[in-house]
Specification:
The protein is of the alpha+beta class. Helix content is 25%, strand content 41%. The chain folds into two domains: 158 residues, Alpha-D-Glucose-1,6-Bisphosphate, Chain A, domain 4, CATH 3.30.530; 164 residues, START domain (Alpha-D-Glucose-1,6-Bisphosphate, Chain A, domain 4, 2-Layer Sandwich). The strands form two sheets. It has an eight-stranded antiparallel beta sheet with strand order 1-2-8-7-6-5-4-3. It has an eight-stranded antiparallel beta sheet with strand order 9-10-16-15-14-13-12-11. Strand 1 and strand 2 form a beta hairpin. The protein is elongated, with a radius of gyration of 22 Å. The two termini are 36 Å apart. InterPro entries: ASHA1/2-like_C, START-like_dom_sf.
Length: 327
């Protein structure tokens, strides 16, 4: 975790985040100068940002929104006051409406970002200053401190070379808390090909099979927000096991970037979990990240104990040997 501290100073009306990275200043700066990289971490897990405007110069504007797993959008706006590459950015930081206009219900703050060299790489400091004590209390009550900690905890993956960071590491599962699990897998393939492999039934039936000895008997998906899907599998030949399936609803669809769905085992009595799958490409390597939100810790542990990670890795290896190798 790169974040070393998140502190509040009620007298100075500031919230300050400090993070250290084993990367040069220029590489950290590039993560903020390139909106496609910025989108990969600006927003806590489950609330990725989309920038549709990013004019990095004094007087320039940026407009973005964070999309929740339920599809709700939260808009923000920056007005760049100072830009001094590769060390400093100062912005007027506002909540906004869908058009990028300032939302007056939350006072505009001032955010100062600095990047300095250290003996081991770089230190990033972000100071968010509120105009009044009431405004500081308001943003803290909205969870800004923890949101910043979670968001910048993702920056190390953006700074790393994906080939070194994840390629060849297989499927990795991390327990984030009692109800959230993060699964990552990298592929040496373009994002558009991974998107097709996850959304086209004819392709999905070729690789999404888990361990050997199973076939996908049903693959149906109304690939629109609010549409439903249903997948089912059955053992082949002498393979032990009973047919099973999953079904759910599409909550968010951003082509070639993100799919959020509910997921319930067909006929099971427990409530559904929510799967949030994102795809990020850098230099020909695509990183899949799935954040799974479970209803409770009991269901989380029950599903992890099924060997889910091993089954996913078997499917991903089949995807690499087949569809991706033939492309």
């Amino acid at each position: 975790m790169p974040v070393t501290s998140v502190t509040t100073d009620p007298e100075a009306l500031t919230l300050t985040l400090v993070a250290d990275f084993p990367a040069p200043v220029e590489r950290v700066w590039d993560a903020f100068a390139d909106p496609r990289k910025l989108e990969r971490f600006w927003g806590p897990p489950g609330y990725p940002a989309t920038f549709d405007r990013y004019d990095l110069r004094p007087g320039g504007l940026a407009h973005y929104w964070m999309t929740s797993p339920e599809g709700e959008r939260f808009h923000g706006r920056w007005e760049f006051v100072e830009v001094a590459a590769p060390h400093r950015i100062v912005v007027l930081d506002s909540f906004a409406d869908s058009r990028g206009e300032v939302d007056p219900s939350v006072p505009t703050g001032r955010m100062t970002l600095t990047i300095e060299s250290t003996a081991t790489g770089s230190r990033l400091a972000i100071v968010s200053a509120s105009p009044t004590a009431e405004a500081l209390e308001q943003v803290l009550a909205m969870g800004q401190a923890e949101g910043m900690r979670q968001a910048f905890g993702q920056l190390d993956a953006v700074l790393a070379d994906l080939r070194e960071y994840a390629l060849g590491a297989g499927t990795r599962t991390e327990v984030l808390d009692d109800t959230h699990v993060r699964i990552t897998r990298a592929f040496e393939a373009p994002r558009h090909l991974l998107w097709r492999a996850h959304t086209e039934p004819d392709l999905m039936k070729k690789w999404l099979l888990g361990p050997d000895g199973w076939e996908m008997t049903v693959c149906e998906n109304d690939l629109v927000v609010g549409g439903s899907y249903r997948n089912a599998w059955a053992p082949v030949g002498d393979t032990a096991g009973e047919p099973f399936g999953f079904e759910g609803e599409n909550l968010v669809i951003e082509p070639e970037r993100r799919i959020v769905t509910t997921e319930r085992m067909t006929g099971a009595p427990f409530p559904p979990n929510v799967n949030d799958l994102t795809m990020d490409e850098d230099d020909g390597v695509t990183l899949l990240t799935m954040i799974i939100a479970y209803p409770d810790v009991t269901q989380r542990d029950m599903i992890l104990a099924t060997g889910m990670t091993d089954g996913m890795e078997a499917s991903y290896q089949r995807l690499e040997r087949g569809i991706l190798a033939d492309a």
